Amino acid sequence: MSGRRARDDEVARWREHGWVLLEGLVPAEEIDAAAGDLYALFPTAQEYHADPEGETERRLGRPAPVDEFPWPAQGPGFRHDQHRWMGAFPFPGSGLLNRLVVHRSIVDFAVRALGSADVRLYQAQVSAKYTGITNYEQPMHTDRNHSWLPAVGQAPWWHVEGFLYLSDVGPTSAPTHLVSVLESAGRRTTVPLVMPDRDPALYAAEHGAAGVRGSYLAYRSDVFHRAVDLTEPGGARFLLNASYKLAGQDWVGYHTMQSRSTSPHWVAFVEGSTPAELALFGFPPPGHPIWNTSLLDATQRLYRGLDTTPWRSLLET
Known about the structure:
This protein is an alpha+beta fold.
C-alpha cells in the first residue's frame, strides 16, 4: 500500500477543531482497485438508477416495512432508509476493500491523533447512498451512542471516527456537515440532538466536507455533525467507515467483529495480515502471555496460511 502521511498541522487541526478532512490520504488508484469488491456489495449508480426496485429486490430482497419514528417528509430526521445499503467487515471479493480498513496512512493518522501506538479498530463497514431513496437530511448531533461515557474533549476519551471516501464527494453528493468545537464552545454539554429551531447559530457555523475519493474524514465524538440530502441527479455516494480507539477503552465500541470470525473472508484477511495489523482487532500479538505451543498449533489449524513464525520465535526465547 502506498499513500501519504498526514501532515502535523492536519493532526493538530483534528485535536483543536475536532475534525479534519485529509484530502487524498489514500491514492485514488487503490480506491479504484477495490471497486470490484465494492460493487459486489452494492450496485453502481448507473445500475441502481436504471432499475431501483429491481436492484433493491435482487440484492436485499423485499424487506417488510419498518415501523419507525414518524419523521416529517421534509426537514431533518434519522430515517431507516438512510441506512438501507450497508455492508459489514470483512467484505467478500478479492480482499482489496478489506485491506483499506487497515491502510497504513489511516492507522498512522489514528496513532498520531490519539497519541498512542496501541490502538484498536472499533468500527468497520461500507455504506452506499443513492439519490431519491429518502430524505437524507439529519438534525445536528454528536455520536454519543459510541460510548458508555460522555466525551469531555480531552484524552484519553477521544477516539477517531473516520470515513474513507470510496467515491468523489461533491457539494450535491451528501458531504457530511460539521461544526468546529471552537465554534460550538458551550454547546457540547447540552442535549446531543440540536434541532434547527433550537440553535440556528449552530447550523450557520457548519462546513461541508466535500473531497475526492481517497480522502479521509476524521472527527471526534464530541463534534456536532449531520448528514445532508443527496441531490446529485442519478447520483450515489460510497464510504468506508474505519474508526479507531485507544486500546483498553472497553467503554467505547460499535461493531463486534468476533461474531464473523468463522467467515472465509476473515480467514483470508488474517492469513494476509501482519501481527501489527491483526493487533488492531485485538488479536494477541507475539509475546502476549496467552500464547503457548498448543494454542499456536490450534490457531494454525484455523488459519492455515498464517505465518506464525513471529509468535513462535518469541515462545522459543
